[in-house]
Amino acid sequence: FIIFDLLSGSLPKMKRISEEQIAEFDSKGVVFLENYFSEKWIKKLKIGIEKNILNPGKEKRVWSKESEGQYTFYDSDNWRNILEYREFIEQSSMKNIAAALLSTKKVNFFFDAIFVRSEGVKFSTPWHQDEPYWSVEGFNTVSIWMPLVDVRKESALAFVPGSHRWGKKFRQQDFGELNPDNEENVNKVIFNSEWEIIPDIDNERDKYNVTSWDMKAGDCVAFNARIIHGGGGNLLPDKDLKVFNTQWLGEDVRVCFKESGMDPDHSKKMKGAGKSSGDVLGNDLYPIFYTDNA
Question: Do residues 142 and 224 touch, judged by C-beta distance below 8 A?
Answer without folding.
Answer: yes
